[in-house]
Amino acid sequence: MAKQYETVIGLEVHVELSTKTKIFCGCSTAFGGAPNTHTCPVCTGMPGSLPVLNKQVLEYAIAVGLATECAITQYSKFDRKNYFYPDNPQNYQISQLYLPICRNGKVEIETEVGSKTIGIHEIHMEEDAGKLIHDEWEECSLVDYNRSGVPLIEIVSEPDMRSAQEVIAYLEKLRLTLQYLGVSDCKLQEGSMRADVNLSVREAGAKEFGTRTEMKNLNSFRAIKRAVENERERQIDLLEAGDEIIQETRRWDDNKGESYAMRSKEDAQDYRYFPDPDLVPIQVSDEWIVQIKERQPEMRAEKITRYKKEYDIPEYDIEIITSSKHMADIFEKTTVLCGQPKKAANWLMVETLRLLKENGMEPEDIRFSPENLAKLIGLTEEKVINSSVAKEVFEIMFDTNIDPQLYIEEKGLKTVNDEDALRRTIEAVIGANPQSVEDYRSGKEKAIGYLVGQTMKAMHGKAEPGMVNKLLKELL
């Protein structure tokens, strides 16, 4: 009988915090920017420069700890992790080893067999390194220190996950929590959320963990899922062949769909950690924790409960709208402005989701404002424009956030409510289409659809379909 294997997975998730300035200096954290322009003596590791902790980083870390039910370490320190690499300007990274800011938390995830608790071992604060650009044409490596000193928190899970599905469920729950807290945009493609996967396999029922490998370079949920499944198979094949699994760091190549060894990783990698002598210990009072707790926003579960009470919209719509903090904000503000929750939900659920999918965008990338969506809903409800013109205007608004009212006036898209003009157009359409008129009069109800279409065409889409229908039936 073939052996059954169990996969054991733990994650180290690095999250770039959305503070305006870096963790230990006043340089900008904005993404992009010409190389080495968001830098100063502190984040480029100049001798004699001194770091000063950004208070916002600490508050964000505590907020995440509270949202994931961690114990907050009220006396905490920074440590130096020593390693020598060109993108690490001081030749050490300021991190937290001995007294991380948060410990022993948990995240509840939904799986195919019900809910499951994934333990969080710790959350610590640290600084990011710079970025190396390898120029193969010039045969040289360039370094950009703009990212050096950008604040990170590292969320280290317990080895509680058993499949790629559980890994994705955990990451999605974590990302949503962080986005709701407003501490990070969590854009994997920009590197503001990065996951390293520690994975081992063991025979089903075994108590001891197998030898683990660490997978790096994972910048999408799809890549993470594929990497987990690939590494599980690779380790099982090695065990089946009687070979040994080597503890190592592996790099995932998503284009090739395979990983390769980067470096062997001994358990006792000697980073020679010691407390950072330039930074004072952090003391967090009970009062401060209470203040941060009181400032915590409404999280998704609470939002879902409130929406069910307050808005008469389907549960499915509530699930989708609240799955993005940005979309939920747009929905709520639009509803306040136009008083039409159903209409606001419909625009988000149908047209917005369609355009996001067509453009390969995330809900966080929505650019139109609640004010403009509310205006468009108002203009449609007041029959200033008909539904097909509204969709046309919405597409422009989705791209450029134009003011729909101004756009409609500029382009002359208002519905023609002049009954005499409409009657004259319909009479001309009836005169030009005797066959359709004959079909309708001999009982073919569908023939009127063609006549409505011809009338709308003659009116350049600016007539109200209901009114066209009514007048056509009268004249026929």
TrEMBL record:
Alphabetic keyword roster: ATP-binding, Ligase, Nucleotide-binding, Protein biosynthesis, Transferase
A GO BP annotation: translation
GO molecular function: asparaginyl-tRNA synthase (glutamine-hydrolyzing) activity; ATP binding; glutaminyl-tRNA synthase (glutamine-hydrolyzing) activity; transferase activity
Catalytically driven reaction(s): L-glutamyl-tRNA(Gln) + L-glutamine + ATP + H2O = L-glutaminyl-tRNA(Gln) + L-glutamate + ADP + phosphate + H(+); L-aspartyl-tRNA(Asn) + L-glutamine + ATP + H2O = L-asparaginyl-tRNA(Asn) + L-glutamate + ADP + phosphate + 2 H(+)
Asn/Gln amidotransferase domain segment(s): 329-476
InterPro entries registered for this protein in UniProt: Asn/Gln-tRNA_amidoTrfase_suB/E (IPR017959), Asn/Gln-tRNA_Trfase_suB/E_cat (IPR006075), Asn/Gln_amidotransferase (IPR018027), Asn/Gln_tRNA_amidoTrase-B-like (IPR003789), GatB (IPR004413), GatB_C_1 (IPR042114), GatB_Yqey_C_2 (IPR023168), Gln-tRNA_amidoTrfase_suB_CS (IPR017958)
Gene3D superfamilies in the record: 1.10.10.410, GatB domain, N-terminal subdomain (1.10.150.380)
Entry EC no(s): 6.3.5.-
Class of the enzyme per the UniProt entry, highest EC level: ligase
NCBIfam families membership: gatB (TIGR00133), PRK05477.1-2 (NF004012), PRK05477.1-4 (NF004014)
Family from the record: Belongs to the GatB/GatE family. GatB subfamily.
Subunit structure: Heterotrimer of A, B and C subunits.
Functional note: Allows the formation of correctly charged Asn-tRNA(Asn) or Gln-tRNA(Gln) through the transamidation of misacylated Asp-tRNA(Asn) or Glu-tRNA(Gln) in organisms which lack either or both of asparaginyl-tRNA or glutaminyl-tRNA synthetases. The reaction takes place in the presence of glutamine and ATP through an activated phospho-Asp-tRNA(Asn) or phospho-Glu-tRNA(Gln).
Official protein name in the record: Aspartyl/glutamyl-tRNA(Asn/Gln) amidotransferase subunit B
Species this protein is from: Kineothrix alysoides
